[in-house]
Amino acid sequence: MNDLLKKAYSAEGFKKDARLIADMVAEQFAAAQSGKQEKAIEYKAPEQELKIWEDDFNDKNPITIEELAGKIFDNTLSFHNRGYMGHQVSVTMPVTALTAEIIAYLSHSTTVYELGMAGNAMEKVVITHMAEKYGYEKGATGVVTSGGSLGNLTALVTARTSSGISEDDYGNLAIMTSVESHYSVSRAASIMGIKSDNIIFVPSDDDFKVRTDLLEPLYQEAVNAGKKVFCVVGCACTTAVGAYDDLEAIADFAERHDIWFHVDGAHGAAAIFSEKYKGFLKGVERSDSIVVDFHKMMMVPALSTAVIYNAGKRKINEKVPNAKYLWQDQRSLEWYNSAKHTMECTKPATIIHTYAIMRLYGDKIYEEYVDTLYDLGIEFGKMIEETPDMELAFKPCTNIVCFRYVPENGKDINEVNRKIADELLKDGTFYIVNTTVRDKFYLRVSLMNPMTDKETLEELLDKIKRLAGAV
Ligand SMILES: *Cc1c(COP(=O)(O)O)cnc(C)c1O
């Protein structure tokens, strides 16, 4: 071996580095948890951040992995800080930093059975377990894929293939989804070549749920215009405010017309593990497919998503790739050889994270997680209602809360809240985000960190009031 290769593949060298980095990650976590780490984010403008990494990249002095890791930690957001309440990305369970090491080292791919034997089998075990939770019929199948966006696309492609609609009619295909649905649903439809006019956005009610009373008239209108509606999508829950659609009513509609019912549960489908909150998913057992992000409410590092198919309507997969170098039989649909079922060819065995969590802690851990964070979101909603100069966009029923500061008369409310958002980011004690709900600007939190508590939220509200006084 050449010298550099010899160094890079030195077992002794790796042993030393591995211990150093493991300690460093553990110390980062301890500092975040104990509150010793004061800020969730040390914000730098993109150009400033770019300069740091350009300078580093061009530095001719050698660097150790330990030094590099330290620099990465110093220049990024800390999700494990209790002030982190931004987007819906999971605050990873520490043990997944260890499963990540195993996944990266093995780099097993579930593409072809032999490349990822454990991963292929674990996917089937976990998917079967989850399908049971959702009340799917025996024989339910599914895959693990890279994210909810790709998951939605995968499910919609399968829905189209299973619809039996002839390719000659693909130009007339239409899909129905809530105006509140995640952009990846309509984007998936666009990628599939569905015309913009055939992506039927169903309006939502005051509670941000899809207007199920409009499904029938909008469907009839589409059919009269020669459109072929093959799928309806339900939100569980919506991304912006965390509202669950009435899945029972959507199921009634889908069954009446024998169209595919897909549930986008990227964020909220984990509620199935909670006795307290699983009622939100009533009717899910009648859906044909569901997407669940393990990297949102199931504490796993990005990306890892389950696409689960009920046993009923799924006729066949999307076209199985004709790849003689991978497998000889194109037609068989065995559960292993996952590339026959996914968009990816090479695909890491991210299922190892979820499998490990289920095996180490059981489903109970998800119940505790969902209950803790949904309870806290509802509690935060009450705190805002009780604060005279604050208001909610929507009374929260999950861990997603949209709210805003209401300034004294004369000040532009959107402008004031935009400034508060900017100042909060500069301050860095908390990391929250914002959104526009029905043309109004709101501050938005997703409570993803089980270390965040009521006291943290009181501090956040105090800080917002102080900042509001200053802007
Ligand atoms: C986050 C989200 C998605 C997209 O999932 P990614 O894993 O980010 O691709 C889709 N639908 C909903 C409802 C989401 O909240």
> What gap, in angstroms, lies between the N and C termini?
63 Å
Structural class, judged by helices and strands? alpha/beta
What do the pLDDT scores average to? Answer: 94
Helix content: 40-55%
Q: Enumerate the spans where pLDDT stays under 50 for 5 or more consecutive residues.
A: none
The topology string of helices and strands comes to HHHHHHEHEHEHEHEEHEHHEEHEEH
Quick one: overall form? Answer: globular
Count of beta strands: 11
Radius of gyration from the CA trace? 24 Å
* Helix segment tally: 15
Biggest β-sheet strands, sense, barrel? 7 strands, mixed
Strand line-up of the largest beta sheet: 1-7-6-5-4-2-3
Ions, cofactors and other bound molecules: pyridoxal-5'-phosphate
Q: Beta-strand percentage?
A: 5-15%
Commentary on this structure:
This protein is of the alpha/beta class and 471 residues long. The chain is 42% helix and 13% strand. It has 15 helices and 11 strands. The chain has helices spanning 3-8, 11-34, 46-58, 65-74, 95-106, 117-133, 148-162, 183-191, 215-224, 247-257, 294-297, 351-361, 364-385, 413-427, 454-470, and strands at 141-145, 173-178, 199-202, 228-235, 260-264, 289-293, 305-309, 390-392, 400-405, 433-437, 440-446. The strands form 2 sheets. The protein has a 7-stranded mixed beta sheet with strand order 1-7-6-5-4-2-3, with helices on both faces. Strand 8 and strand 9 (400-405) form a beta hairpin. The longest helix has 24 residues, at 11-34. The radius of gyration is 24 Å and the shape is globular. Pyridoxal-5'-phosphate binds at residues 88, 147-149, 182, 184, 239, 264, 266-267, 293, 303, 305.
